[in-house]
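Supplementary Methods S3. Input chains for the assembly prediction are listed below.
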Amino acid sequence: MTDAKQPDAKQPDAKQLAAKQEEAVDPSAPVTGMDYFMKLEYHELLCPVVREFADALMDKRLIGHKCPKCGLIYSPPRGYCPICTVQTTKADEIEIQTHGIVTNYTVVTPVQYYGQEETEPFAKVSLQLDGGGTLSLQDLPGVPVEQVHPGMRVEIVWAPDDERHVDDVTNRSWGSAEGAIRGWKPTGEADADPSEYSDKTF
Amino acid sequence: MANDIAIVGYAQSPSWRQSELTEPQFLFPVISEAIERAGVERREIGFTCAGSCDYLSGQTFAFVMNLEAVGAWPPITESHVEMDGAWALYEAWVRLQHGDIDTALVFGSGKSSPGVPAEVYPHQMDPYTLTPLGADPVSLAALQARAMLDAGKITEREMAEIAARSRKSAIGNPYAQVTGDDDPDALLKEPYVTAPLRRHDLPPISDGACAVILATADKAKSLSKRPVWIRGIDHRIDIHQPGMRDLTESPSTRLAGKKAGVGDAKVDIAELSATFSYQEKLLCEELGLGDDVEINPSGGPLAANPVMAVGLARFAEAARQIAEHGKGRAVAHATSGQCLQQNLVAVLEGD
Amino acid sequence: MPADKRLTTHAIEFPYTRTLGPVYSAFLTGMRDGQILGIKSRDGRVLCPPTEWDPNTGEGLDADFVEVGPGGVVTTWAWVTEPTSKHPVDHPFAFALIKLDGADTGLLHAVDAGSMDAMQTGMRVTARWKDERIGHITDVEAFVPEAAK
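Predicted structure tokens for the full assembly:
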């Protein structure tokens, strides 16, 4: 399933469909196919722990839940540690640093399927934040994709106060929050030694 | 002959009209409670099987997220059905027949509130002749209800009586969503939603979850003072096109009931997935359940309808009647598809 | 909704193109050409909509098509007060199973009867075709009471 984030993404182009039908040349030829445009909209309440994550973003803060048993930090918080199967609460909430290390990345070369809005290759990175905590699906705007590599030291770029919003934060958006976090920029410091993060890549 | 398998633990979430928790979040305490009640070690569970529907969540592989509520690391042996949790229970029951493991966790969960059920469900239908018409479950159920009314197999008053009794029974059920002490005559004065169905004939839209722990005979006896034995279980399916069936009958229910052994001895109570009021009477007829059988003491799906968990919840409720209320023999029924197309029937007994 | 609750929206969209196979191809070609086809089963019944196999026995069926309808009898119906955006008619209508003349099974479709009072089991209806047809179940816009035609 393609999870189109924009509920108003373009409707099937009726003219294109009609043209496709006409392309089928002979109006008396057997009908062999059927187009069906399926669209379903969902409206879901933001769960409390992600609501708190979103509220913190508006205050230019990153928060997570630290598992009381194993110490793993989840950001955004999930309300539980799936490894230890213990629930986590507000008491387990911690603030996370807004600078850290790129531990892994992927370069997406967008295939132009229906609903794809990107045209150029782009990178998504995983981050290990200084002091603990991780974030996935983050952007490094302005950094050419061929320069993205593990070990880069980066810091957060918040959206300006008058533009910042968390409308795109949902229960399933994970660490992605482009309305609040514009991305991460290299600090210019020397790369981290792999021993600092090689057991924390994901 | 199949090996005896028992239900040794069960738990449910309340049925909510709109939960603000995510599916794994509300599954989490339900699974933990079922495991605790069974008294098994989480890591000792031999097999896990879940029932849920990605179309309800509107997210690909949503069922993978639900595993976060299980404790799936280090990796466990698990499976998933895109069906009600009752069919996950069936898969686990089959898996336990192999004899190499002794316990299984089964759960079902769903959030119907984010989507529009009338728009989501047509996508389970024939994509050429039914989905493009937006054939929705309430309209299709109304066709079946009308067929039964026309055939003299039920009256609108009987439908209202079933709804009123279900709501009343649900008053004592902490998981129920729709409860009340209604006068059938007053219900009959309400307008039709989709004639001949009124609001009381329809199930609520619900979010919720249910979990059940199964164990093989020896293990069950060591775990529980009151294991609930699955004496028979079977599931069957009818023709998909609603116009190619006699909608006033449910041959698949009849056959599944026969194979499960419903008629072999007296039945005390039955928990039926009668999602629409009239279906209760049809199911009772096909299963041979008379007036002496207590139907849906929990209130049934008319009181709480967490789709993908509601069938499994029938097992939990039937098991509760045996383990906690001293009933001897119970029937649990789950259904799938429109107009009772597919049906699963099980017979549960105490020692 | 309380201020501390926040509703989020997401959508899924799939532009499907499905192949039809031999039987639905014939059925929908017929719809485009303004005729409704059924298929003969081995026991001599006529099934509409046509299927590739006998729904009772699972036997494959020969491509033995017969024209049915466009008139038929309503065998059961439901009055839809509030159509969804996915329904074929945008005002109150009936969903009905229609046993078309010459067929032995019911076709699900809409009956545009104007009001619930105009509906009854056993009534005769007939297809109202769209002017522009593409080979689709909704090439029949809806069925209408035969008397009103």
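The CA atoms of residues 94 and 202 of chain A lie 21 Å apart. Chain A has one domain: 48-196.
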